[in-house]
Amino acid sequence: MPNSDCDVLVVGSGVSGLTTAICLAESGARVLIRTATPPGQTTSSVAGAIWGPHLVEESDRVDGWGRETLAMLRELAADPAAAVRTLSGVYATRGAPCPTGHLPPGFASGWRYSAPLLHMPTYLGYLLARFEAAGGRLEAGTVGSLPAAGAEHGARAVVNCTGTGARGLLPDPALKPFRGQVVIAENPGLSEFFIGLPDDTSEVVYLFPHGDTVVLGGTEVGDDWNTEPVPAVAERILRDCAVIEPRVHGLRVLGHRVGLRPFRPRVRLEAEPPGPGPLVVHNYGHGGAGVTLSWGCAREAAGLAAQALG
Fold first, then answer.
1. Neighbours of 109 (CB within 10 A)
2. How far apart are CA 49 and CA 36, in angstroms?
3. Is 21 helix (H, G, I), strand (E, B) or coil?
4. How confident is the model over 163-204, as pLDDT tens digits?
5. Exposure letters 164-192 (e unless 16+ CB within 10 A, then b)
6. Which site among 18, 177, 184, 272 is 20 to 30 Å from 302 CA-CA?
7. pLDDT of res. 97
8. Full-model pTM
9. Is 50 left (phi over 0), alpha (psi -120 to 50) or beta?
């Protein structure tokens, strides 16, 4: 193809975009990522981020993508540069207080398990470095049309990993954001995670320790596009987390983060029917399970894009 500077153009540099780009680049394709925001400013950088399907369809394919990603994250836990650790903790549901006293006030049942927990700023940096080591390139820029952006670079395939951006880009009215706000604070010594599900009167609450810091959350508000931290919400998060863990009282707050989870009734992972331009592959709509499904979805999306490369 004349003036081709890549085989595949990946649009978006969150966890889905970077992971898909790695799968393609490490298979020998020339890959370019175009992104409106750098990895460290994507929704993925704000994620908690613990492995576990959340705010995503219940289906066999999601289970498969999740299992494949879990196996990969367990492998990556052996590499300190990836910032993936297997941590134990509690997942609890609300209701009448548990008579045994093993759960915080207001929680009726729960279970203890272990799962990979990722420090997302570091993990995204690891993914970017791995992508570049495989010969991939990243450029800043917006995209008004997927086929046109691919044609501009002479790409034979374009992979859409734009998350909530797909709503206006395609457009896709089936996609809606679920706003998440978190507080980053000094870790008072927490070594286990806690996830408390919401009910009609309470919000979701979680504590994810990452070494010297802890991510405190959270919110799950549909159709809210506000990406600025709301002080009153931050105060509520701190109060809720202090009920779970009294050591949260008086913690030094280091920052506030907001991300928009790209929810869709069904994850969109498919190739559009072949046309005169580059093949367009979609990989978005993972809701709150972007990390959880990342490697499984990336490998499938990369396989679809590879069909255009012969």
1. 12
2. 22
3. helix
4. 999 999 999 999 999 999 999 999 999 999 999 998 888 899
5. bbbbebbebeebbbbbbbbbebebeebee
6. 177
7. 55
8. 0.95
9. beta
